[in-house]
Amino acid sequence: MAIEIKEIQKFERIGAHSHIKGLGLDENLRALDVADGLVGQKKAREAAGVIVRMIKSGKMAGKGILIAGPPGTGKTAIAVAISKELGKDIPFVQVSASEFYSAEMKKTEALIQAMRKAIGVRIKERRFVLEGEVVGLDYNMVPNPYNPTQKIPESATLTLATKDEKRTFTVSGRLALQFLYQGIEVGDVIMIDKETGRIVKLGKSERAKKYDIGEETVEVPSGRIEKEKEFTYVVTLHDLDEANARRRGGLFSLFEPVSKEIDSEVREAVDEQVKRWVEEGRAELIPGVLFIDETHLMDIELFAFMNRAMESEMAPIIILASNRGFAKIRGTDIVSPHGIPLDLLDRLLIITTEPYSREEIKKIIEIRADESKIKLSEEALEMLTDLGEKNSLRYAVQLLAPAYELAKLRNSDKIEVEDVKKASELFVDVSQSSSYLKKWEEKMLAQ
Ligand SMILES: Nc1ncnc2c1ncn2[C@@H]1O[C@H](COP(=O)(O)OP(=O)(O)O)[C@@H](O)[C@H]1O
Ligand SMILES: [Mg+2]
Prior knowledge:
It contains 13 helices and 19 strands. With 447 residues, the chain is of the alpha/beta class. The protein folds into 3 domains: 169 residues, 3-Layer(aba) Sandwich (Rossmann fold), CATH 3.40.50; 108 residues, CATH 2.40.50.360; 75 residues, Helicase, Ruva Protein, domain 3 (Orthogonal Bundle). Strands 5, 6, 7, 8, 9, 10, 11 and 12 form an 8-stranded mixed sheet that branches. A 5-stranded parallel sheet has the order 4-13-14-3-17. Strands 1-2 form a two-stranded antiparallel ribbon.
């Protein structure tokens, strides 16, 4: 199976949560008052800490978590903190349930793709390579048959050396061209994959460094030039699905963006292949996390599909977030806690978040301002805290940026009360904007 080497990309909407570095727990998983950018919400943070341990020790398979709480109480913030705690080796995929509804694909397809992006496969591969310092490189240049004014290499003579061995090779024109493109020269330490001819420049040899500064230097390898090496890389099940679909040709062309639906046959083949790799000890599954924000936007079909998919041995851990109490399950008239079907709720561990105290709101605004390198006076901070208490934390946090622009218009780099006041007049919060439109609609109807 063809594999493209790709780093796992953590899909994160940092923006509003860039100040969060972790859950802020001590070694006994006790939440500190203020740590890692997080303030208060201690019970939820401690619960999240236990979840992180369970995920890392593989005890969360087939289970899910629901973070439930009023808007602006840090549900998304805690999910982001969980992803930070998991580290970069464990996939963490963040989506809003609204993203499942698109014109490009069926909603269940969008969901299964998101789930498969959240499962990593660590692949170990042994390959024969040539590795050493380039101590001689001579090109045999000939005129380009298509453009005789240009010269291209017909072949090259390459001498590689380790601390213990020195060998000279004749390399093909195709490979010689790669050397030229990559700017490989004497003094570089390189590795060539014998099978594919891929060349990797590892750095300048320490012996050569006195001639060239600024480049990374590496030790000259010892031992044989030709050796078998083990490589490890992590791809997601979705990467393998795409690679496999592309290889089959039918579905994708090389130039088409690959955001299309993938055949279930392709997925089954990938699953089988991966299982075989795992059995042979060549691969390891890394179940990651799929975080679905705004869960109330999922409908009964998506919930049913997800519930079934969670049974599979290749399912990620699901984290849901909801700010609904009792609500209709979308697509039905059934009222259920958080608008989530009971059979799914049965397999969820539930964490709740609570509204913040005035002091906590103030501290969060301070941390956000600090993160964005924004200065504000004590009175301005008090006023934003008032707005956070009366309207919402999110509103107060969002006003920081426009208030800062207004301060700059006054040629100041510090937000004062007048800037906050002006910003809050220019930008209303969502309850104000919706009640404004409601009044307007009533007026229109009365006419
Ligand atoms: N306990 C906390 N500590 C620090 N920042 C927080 C905390 N809770 C929320 N925030 C920040 O406040 C804003 C609103 O919180 P958010 O996580 O979006 O709430 P929710 O998802 O519950 O609606 C975000 O910028 C978030 O990063
Ligand atoms: Mg949220």
